[in-house]
Amino acid sequence: MKKYTQLAEELTQEVKIISRNPGDPVEVLFAPEPWELLGCGNYAAVFVRPDFPDQVVKIYGRNHEDLLEEISVYRQLGEHPGYSRCYGYGERHLILKRIEGITLYDCLHKGVKISENVIRDVDEALCYARNRGLFPRDVHGKNVMISNGRGIIVDVSDFCKKEECYKWRDLRKAYFKIYQPFFYRFPLRVPYPVLNGVRIGYRWYKRWKMKK
Questions:
Q1: Predicted confidence (pLDDT) per residue in 110-169, tens digit
Q2: Domains of the chain by residue range
Q3: Can you give the chain as a three-state secondary structure string?
Q4: 8 A C-beta contact, residue 114 and residue 139
Q5: Which of these, 111, 131, 143, 184, has the minimum number of CB atoms within 10 Å of its CB?
Q6: Per CATH, which fold does 102-187 belong to?
């Protein structure tokens, strides 16, 4: 782990990440080889090396002060099958256990079935977090992954914020009322532009409803 920690520090110094819009994922302009980009979220980008396949480095592209909150969240969570694990951290990054699988978002795109036990796994993981004194929020299709048939929450960066969040509640409702009766039996491949349109439409709908 000492060698990996050094490599993670070097990556943090060389990588170039920008944030164009607070509501959109950060963008990676440059990452040194052999690091590979696994994905980007609204705050950070995640990288992996072929010679260290079991760990990832999550580098914040904005709101670096939130890094301390995420470190605190992982400390409170401890070890639980519904979450990753934090092995170490620096001024801008976290070293996490790699979770391999497919997000719910990509399941819809590729026509991969999402079983009910995945939803139940997430429900249990969220209940566990609340019992540990946390406030789970921002749990949605891009932040939940299916790994070996189990549901895992891969982003806990907002679990310290006490604002109420309905994203998982709404996704769960859509799963049981729409997805399970229709799409589970006959899975369709939904194009990314359509999924992104639904995401943007949902965001605007929630803003409109809050203003009423």
A1: 999 999 999 999 999 999 999 999 999 999 999 999 999 999 999 998 999 888 889 999
A2: 2-97, 102-187
A3: CHHHHHHHHHHHHHCEEECCCCCCCCEEEECCCCCEEEEECCCEEEEEECCEEEEEEEEECCCCCHHHHHHHHHHHHCCCCCECCEEEECCCEEEEECCCCEEHHHHHHHCCCCCHHHHHHHHHHHHHHHHCCCCCCCCCCCCEEEECCEEEECCCCCCCCCCCCCHHHHHHHHHHHHHHHHHCCCCCCCCHHHHHHHHHHHHHHHHHHHHC
A4: no
A5: 131
A6: Transferase(Phosphotransferase); domain 1 (1.10.510)
Q: Which CATH architecture has domain 2-97?
A: 2-Layer Sandwich (3.30)
Q: What is the pLDDT of residues 20-56, one digit of tens each?
A: 887 778 999 999 999 999 988 888 999 999 999 999 9
Q: Which two tokens stand for residue 61?
A: 């592209």
Structure tokens at 178: 């729409």
